Amino acid sequence: MDKNLAIGLFDSGIGGLSVLKQFLKFLPNERYYYLGDTARVPYGNKSEQTVIDYSKQCAEFLISKGVKLIVIACNTASAIALDAVRSITDVPIIGMIEPASKAAVIYSQNGKIGVIGTRATISSKAYQSKINELAGGAKEFEIHSKACPLFVPLVEEGYANHEVTKSIAREYLSDFIDYNVDTLVLGCTHYPLLKQTINEILPNTNLIDSGEHSAIKAIRVLANLGMLVDDSNYIEKTPKIDFYVTDIPATFYELTKVFLDFDVKEPKKIILD
To answer: What is the pLDDT of residues 140-162, one digit of tens each?
Structure first.
């Protein structure tokens, strides 16, 4: 493959932009395609087979554009469809679950780890399984999970640091204080926007951002393949991103600015079938 090919990311909506933001931070000279399946969001209330079908369609679109790496920037799709997506291509695939789980295993000192996410991600037990798998029996981990379904609409309404969000967060997270967790996995791509609120409630807890750790893993994967863009001469000041969506929601532009901190030009609307 040509190392100048783009990195492709897809999500059921715009939450995956928090993952893209981390990639822009760690790999600023790369070119990106971002696909948001906004016409069929959310994936969390769909059947497993539907999530697999949708995820394969998203991956096939990115493959058709020519990419050197695909990032499943969605915890639900990562939990359910990672193997299915890997089965259709030789392009390296990175999900959210493994990088964040590995970071939790490394960061936790007392072996008590919390995981928050959507109902679909939590009920899949993907994080619990991966954390125990990565520990390999070397250390006993006590894992506590909690679905926090109200966090996503609160973020999308611009209430990330609002008092109502803090009140709901205290309700969701109070058990983690009792459990004495020292590490909390933010198992949804919207949740990094709530770091300030979560830190106020769990001030001594390591917060694991799945987007950050997937970007770090991408550096390793691409470096091992000799596929990193040569950045020895310059750093791009303007991100090189092509945005694709299956629908353009009314709040698209204001939400993308919340996630990325810069204005996004009009995305290309596509149909996935």
So the answer is: 899 999 999 999 999 988 899 89
28 cis-preceded (ω within 30 degrees of 0): no
Q: What are phi and psi of 112, to 5 degrees?
A: -110, 110
DSSP 95-136: -SHHHHHHHHHHH-SSSEEEEEE-HHHHHHTHHHHHHHHHHT
Q: Each residue of 199-220: b (16+ CB within 10 Å) or e?
A: eebbeebbbbbbbbbbbbbbee
DSSP-based three-state secondary structure for 37: coil
Of the listed 188, 198, 207, 218, which one is catalytic?
A: 188
Please state, in angstroms and rounded to a whole number, the distance separating the CA atoms of residues 19 and 266: 20
Q: Which of 7, 41, 72, 74 is an active site residue? A: 74
Question: What does the alpha-carbon distance between residue 132 and residue 128 come to, in Å, rounded to a whole number?
Answer: 6
Which residue would you say has higher pLDDT here, 236 or 265? 265
Told to judge if 74 belongs to the known catalytic residues of this protein, a careful annotator would answer: yes
State the helix-helix crossing angle for 17-26 and 252-260, rounded to 10 degrees. Answer: 40
Query: Residue 271: which H helix or E strand, with range?
Result: none
Confidence of residue 239 (pLDDT cuts 50, 70, 90): confident
pLDDT, the chain, mean: 94
Give dist(CA 76, CA 251) in Å, integer.
Answer: 23
Three-state DSSP class for residue 238: coil
